[in-house]
Every structure is written in C-alpha cells, then in structure tokens.
Design brief:
Helix content: 25-40%
Order of helices and strands: HHHEHHHHEEEHHHEEE
Number of strands: 7
Number of domains: 2
Strand order of the largest sheet: 1-4-3-2
Shape: globular
Structural class: alpha+beta
Length: 290
Amino acid sequence: MDQITAESPRIKKFKKDLVDSIPRFPNNKATLQALEQMRLVDLLITFLGWRVRLVGQRPRRVTRAQALRHDPRAQALAPNIEAFLNSVTAGEDLTPYLSLSARSEGFTIPDKNHPKGLWADKDFLLNAMGFHHFHLGLTLEPGGHCKRTNEVLFALVRRDEFEIIGLFTHDAFERNVQGKMTSERRRLWSTFERRLAEGVLPGQMYIGGMAGMGISGSGIPIAVVETAFHYIRQIKWYEENLRNFEFAKTLYSEGNIPAKSKFKWGIDHLDLVLLDEGAGQLVRIAKGLN
C-alpha cells in the first residue's frame, strides 16, 4: 500500500523534482546518488523532514502573546518583535527569520561519526518539541536573511495560528562544558513540558513532538512519516484514475478543460498538489503540517 510498483513518467518526474529540491551537504555525487536510489516514500519522508523546517507563507493569527509580557528581554526587543509579528499576521515570507541551516542543510548521508551524529540534517528542538525558532533582526543581510540576534522567538506554527512559546537566547541549543543542559535549555524544556501537560488529566498519557505524535528512531517526526505515507496512498489512487481522461477532466475548472491532461505531481511548500501549468490549473490533493 505504501509503494507505487510501476512508476509512470509522471512519478519519475516527481522523484527527480524532489531530489533537485532538497539541499544536499556536501553537494556531491554521493549525496545525489543516495537520494536518487530512494523509494518514493523514503524520498518524500526526506523532503518533508527538511521542508517542515520552513514555514508556509500564509496569514496567521498570533496567540499567547502574554508569554512575552513579563520578559525584560522582550521589552528591550519590542520594536523587533512587533515588526516580526506584523509579518506573521500579514502572511509575509518568514524564511529570512529562520536559521540559515533550515535552508541549506536538507540531507546528508547518515554518519554516526559526524559531530552531530544522525541529527546532522535535522532540527532537534523542532522535531522533539514541534517548535520553530525565529531571529528578530530588523535589517536584511546581503544573503537575504534578517540580521541574526542572540535572542530567538520560539513558536508553535500551525497553518492558521502562530502560538508564541517564549523568548530564549541561543544557550537554549547548548550544553555546558560538563555536558549538562544550560539554564536556558532547561528553561525551554520546562516550558515545553508545562505546555504539554496543559489540560491533561492526572495519570493520562501524552506524547510530545511535532503534532503530538513523537519522533521515530531516525529522528524524523512521526507526523512527517504519516504524512508521507498518506501522500503515497493519494498518489497511488490518483495515478490509477488519471489514466481515464474523463476522470482527469473533473479536476479542471469549468470552461478550462484542455484537449489532453498534462498534470504533474508537485509539492506546494508541504501540500501535495497536481499541476497542469499549460492550463493554469493547480489541484490541492492533501494539506501539509504548516
């Protein structure tokens, strides 16, 4: 159920587009071949596992702003935070506020000897907690990113909601020389656990991680894995039915049906879509995580 046994030209093109989209490091023949040799489901998991580090461009309502109310650092950065949250509610591109690695470190071949181990191409705090973090600089650097700030804003980003978790320094990502959590990292974990326990009954079991589904042994959020398998099932069903042009015609807008269907698979941020660029048609098959 999780695999497409006979790959159509449309599937082969989709796999190539996914491979070309994922930032590889190092960008060499070995990383390229590793992606090219993946099954479609594994390639989707890899793509979505990277892409979820970015944020879909759409307006969102800001919630839990009170989390910043009594933080003196938030008061000192008030103009920066206001400008950033205005971008959030206006639906502007938030990529410049994200860490640089979110854009450049999409896939590397797993290597236990790497300094970061199997987490080299993953955002540990995002996968473990479901929280994105954003820099708050007011000016754009030549590379297209906002000026880096030591303070970063952690938030739980849904498709239509931006829930503020709090303001933390970069020490939240670090351990001290003894290998123990820094005080800022402990504060972040404490905030995460406190939020996770909200509304939970005594003795009730709950799981952290993205969408509250935990993470797999490979470090990929279960939510990402489940999304990839759902997309595979959708692709399989549509591939079988797209052979019938009478079915394909039902996907086009009225009065905009071409003589021949030329749909191709694509990912619009995290959403699975079918596109016919010649007919100017996009069909959103399934929605992603943010």
